[in-house]
């Protein structure tokens, strides 16, 4: 998945506001976790520094991915009751079902039934029904126990034992650094150079296309769906009727298709076209719910909806119900102090973060870094001041009590 530049600059602007944004809080906590929690005496100097822009990037990527994949998903129920969902995020558990057993579990099960297990994320798959706790497992599913022994219609491949591409590597592969792309037909993931040895990973135009909104059909699948070839065209956006293009011939040296943006909308839905797709067992291509973009949009809009609900009064109400009126005031007091402190802390790095976006273009390529010591000092100071304030408050209370 790629992030677009407009979105990035938008987010950078928000960060420049005077107060501490939610993202800064998250980043600060991450920073604290990573650095303060890391004080195990290891003296490797490469551990000492994390650049601000690296951290922002990491945080943004993670948050964006989470929102896109999980935004509208239920973390606490098993999707088994919904049958073969058109699309869902899936995992495998190598602890419960080691190779050669092939089984997939839903998001809810990954969270509730396989805590601490070795999980592999499979991104999203079509028409799959959760296997958790069925005959492939020894442990029962904690969310929905009454499953059939097997889900007959699930289609498994090597992904379900944690291997990807023609090279049969785990992800990430310790041997191959190249990015992987998912085939829209077989849904396996591939290094493009393993599909087409002439594929130039350094070709920026090509990379942009690969990471754009189109879809890839791998070399194993193009022979099954040769009729999709006209949907590669970026200039001709007319509807393609497969029945009018009987000769489906694919050039010999063609190793993959790169279907252009909104290619699904261009598929003709006449009876003959549907018959052709049914023959090729790919009629899901005209199901909007099969479309990853639709899935992602649904997740993102849910996240937005939730964010809009989290207004300040809503947060205040939640705090009061959790801690009582007086407790809520103390919590808010502490949070506000922490916010002020962090705003000052981040102020020091603001110029650097603004530069972070452009640092790759900068000939000097220098970045100020946030060090472990900076963060230790910052949180140490905040902690001290908080303790002092608390002590004063306790004193006041005791004083008034006498
Ligand atoms: Zn499940
Ligand atoms: Zn497990
Ligand atoms: Zn389960
Ligand atoms: Zn490969
Ligand atoms: Zn494929
Ligand atoms: Zn047609």
Automatic annotation (TrEMBL):
PROSITE patterns: ZF_UBR (PS51157)
Domain of life: Eukaryota
Comp. bias intervals (Basic and acidic residues): 8-17
Entry keyword set: Metal-binding, Zinc, Zinc-finger
Zinc finger (UBR-type): 76-146
Signal sequence interval, chain numbering: none
Residues covered by region (Disordered): 1-25
A UniProt-annotated Pfam family: zf-UBR
SUPFAM superfamilies given in the database record: FYVE/PHD zinc finger (SSF57903)
GO CC, alphabetical: cytoplasm
Domain (UBR-type): residue spans on this chain: 76-146
InterPro entries according to UniProt: UBR7, UBR7-like_UBR-box, Znf_FYVE_PHD, Znf_RING/FYVE/PHD, Znf_UBR
UniProt keyword annotation of Zinc-finger present: yes
GO molecular function, one term: zinc ion binding
Protein name stated in the entry: UBR-type domain-containing protein
Species, as recorded: Diploscapter pachys
């Amino acid at each position: 998945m790629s992030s677009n530049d407009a979105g990035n600059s938008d987010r950078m602007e928000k960060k420049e506001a005077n107060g501490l944004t939610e993202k800064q809080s998250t980043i600060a906590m991450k920073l604290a976790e990573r650095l303060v929690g890391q004080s195990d005496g290891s003296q490797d100097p490469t551990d000492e520094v994390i650049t601000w822009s690296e951290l922002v990037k990491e945080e943004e990527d993670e948050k964006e991915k989470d929102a896109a994949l999980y935004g509208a998903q239920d973390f606490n129920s098993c999707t088994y009751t919904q049958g073969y969902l058109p699309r869902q995020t899936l995992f495998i558990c190598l602890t419960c079902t080691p190779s050669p057993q092939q089984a997939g579990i839903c998001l809810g099960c990954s969270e509730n039934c396989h805590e601490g297990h070795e999980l592999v994320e499979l991104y999203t798959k079509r028409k799959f029904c959760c296997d958790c706790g069925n005959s492939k497992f020894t442990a029962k599913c904690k969310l929905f126990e009454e499953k059939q022994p097997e889900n007959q219609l699930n289609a498994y491949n090597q992904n379900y034992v944690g291997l990807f591409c023609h090279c049969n590597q785990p992800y990430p592969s310790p041997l191959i650094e190249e990015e992987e792309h998912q085939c829209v037909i077989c849904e396996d993931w591939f290094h493009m150079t393993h599909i087409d040895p002439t594929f130039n990973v350094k070709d920026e135009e090509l990379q942009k296309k690969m990471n754009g909104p189109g879809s890839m059909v791998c070399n194993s699948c193009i022979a099954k769906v040769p009729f999709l070839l006209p949907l590669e065209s970026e200039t001709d956006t007319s509807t393609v009727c497969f029945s009018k293009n009987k000769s489906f011939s694919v050039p010999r040296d063609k190793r993959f298709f790169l279907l252009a943006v909104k290619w699904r909308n261009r598929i003709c839905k006449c009876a003959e076209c549907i018959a052709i797709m049914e023959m090729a067992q790919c009629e899901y291509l005209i199901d909007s719910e099969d479309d990853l973009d639709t899935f992602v949009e649904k997740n993102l809009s849910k996240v937005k909806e939730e964010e809009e609900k989290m207004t300040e009064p809503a947060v205040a109400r939640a705090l009061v119900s959790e801690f009582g009126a007086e407790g809520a005031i103390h919590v808010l007091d502490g949070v506000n102090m922490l916010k002020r402190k962090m705003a000052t802390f981040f102020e020091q790095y603001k110029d650097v973060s603004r530069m972070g976006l452009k640092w790759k273009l900068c000939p000097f390529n220098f970045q100020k870094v946030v060090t472990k010591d900076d963060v230790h000092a910052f949180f140490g100071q905040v902690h001290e001041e908080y303790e002092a304030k608390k002590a004063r408050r306790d004193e006041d209370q005791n004083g008034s009590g006498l």
